Amino acid sequence: MGIAKNLVKSLQMMERRLPLYLLSIFMMTALNALFEVAGSVFMKIIFDCANQGSVYERKSQIIITVIMGILAIIMASIFMCIYNNEAKRMSLKLKMLVFEKSMKFPYVYYEEHHSGEILSKLVYDTDIASNIYSSRLRRVLAPIIFVAVFAVAMMIINPFMTIVLIAFNVILFLINALLSNPMKKVGKKLSKNNAVMTNILSDMIAGAGISKIYDINHKGVLKYKTVNNQYTVEQKEKMRLAALLEMFNSGFDLFCALMFVVLGIILVQQKFATIGEVAAIYTLYTSLSFRFLQLGKNFPELVNCIAYAERIFEFLELPEENKEIISKSILVKPVTQKEDAVVFSNISFGYKDKEKLFNRATYEFPANKLIAAVGPSGCGKSTLAKLLLGFYTIDRGDILIFGKSISELGISKVREQIAYVPQEPYLYNVSILDNIRYARKTASKQEVMEAAKLANAHEFISKMENGYDTVIINRGNNLSGGERQRIAIARAILKDSPVILMDEATSALDNESEQMIADSIASLKKRKTVIMIAHRKKTIQMADSIVEVQMWNKPAG
């Protein structure tokens, strides 16, 4: 039942194009079958003419049969093109759905799941699941259509021989179908192990430097080998099942061929069939038997693809980030003045299965000033940033931006108000220009350069061989830490949001880089609200005001 349900679900994803897709499968298969029927009829006419010695009397039948065969194969080719287009379209749609879904999860999902797991879904699982559209479903439906067309033609030629031969092949299909469930189980195991291998490989490549220093005994490689060996065992199991199918099918095919010869001789001797009918039926039966063998082989493979599609559906049905409401807060009267840009009002929050980090805590950040959020390690400074950005949902209280509740604004509008600079800025493997422009796609090059000047990044960018067209290598390995951070600040400036949020933006920089970034920040505070999560003395000293985040906040009194 699960197999049929997931197959129907896969087909429903094609929406209005499903009828055209199914029609193209039916027509191209039926027309190809008619071409082979024309060939068998042609053979019957030739054998009967040879036996009776009268070719010219049937020349019109020969001509009509040849013309029908040619028209059938031409039309089949047209429908094959339609089918291929629809299958490719659906394969691309499936990949796009998985990609778009991977960008819509709540922040906590990315913390709890490895990036390699998502990559495995996007690359490996979707490739196999999309085979439903590109080949596997057609390979299961085509033999059924072929057999139906051949059966009608064979029944017209000689009903008795047809019934006996089809009975043998039905038995063959039922035995093949018994192996579908083991194939499905093996497919699921292969998918899971592939995800694990992708995770390990991703970690090893991303942390190659650390691995070389600390993983002297190559434990990462050994772990990969262990999972790879398990994957190999399961792949062998899959191949064993496939080989068992092939062996059984070949043996049964030989048995049916011998039975046909015996049956044909008996029928000709008893005058129940002519030599021409036996020749025509044999031609069609050879193809019919081959199609039955294909059905027995391809059905388990379709089931395997459906198992991967099931994993994709589970992935697509995972809860997404709520774009409208980012707080299940109990709204309270805000303790704020109009000049406050951000207020955390009586908030309570705790991570899953952990003690509350904030318990009815209140923090106020005035507008158009540089505010340093300070406090001991683990007190929740970075958590405040994540709550403001909507990465997590507060349990109680409210967060206000310029006097409006984030519940009222919704997550998209909240993030429009904030430009974020993390401690470790992420740079894409594109040009510096495109990295800065990521904040505002429509910005001109001149606007990008102005933002870079405010961030004290223009000078070092201009000195590079390709200037703003310099391509970032491996997330910024061709830049210093200070240069990466200044590009990130330029990106935040270009966004032109009223609030700039910096999470330990200078914590890992040398004094010169820190001073340059400090100068960049100082130039912004007159027209922006700059909130800096900080612990370095120099950063704190240049702040207009300081907000102390206390460990385990508890209500007064």
Would you give an account of this structure?
- 37% of the residues are buried.
- This protein has helices at residues 2-12, 18-52, 59-102, 107-112, 115-129, 131-157, 159-177, 180-206, 208-214, 219-269, 275-316, 381-388, 406-409, 411-416, 432-437, 445-454, 458-463, 481-495, 511-522, 537-541, and strands at 340-349, 358-366, 370-374, 396-401, 404-405, 418-421, 499-503, 529-533, 545-548.
- Helix 1 packs across helix 11, helix 2 runs antiparallel to helix 11 (275-316) and helix 7 (159-177) runs antiparallel to helix 10.
- By secondary structure, it is α/β, with parallel strands linked by helices.
- The chain contains 20 helices and 9 strands.
- It has a 5-stranded parallel sheet, with helices on both faces. Strands 2-1-4-5 form a 4-stranded antiparallel sheet.
Count of DSSP H/I helices: 20
| Distance between the amino and carboxyl termini | 61 Å
How many β-strands, per DSSP? 9
pLDDT averaged residue by residue: 80
Biggest sheet, open or closed, and with what strands and sense? 5 strands, parallel
β-strand amount: 5-15%
Low-pLDDT runs: 326-337, 553-557
Main sheet: strand order: 6-7-8-3-9
SSE pattern:
HHHHHHHHHHHEEEHEEHHEHHHHEHEHE
What structural category characterises the helix and strand content?
alpha/beta
Instruction: Evaluate the radius of gyration.
Output: 35 Å
Shape: elongated
Approximately how much helix is present in the residues? 55-70%
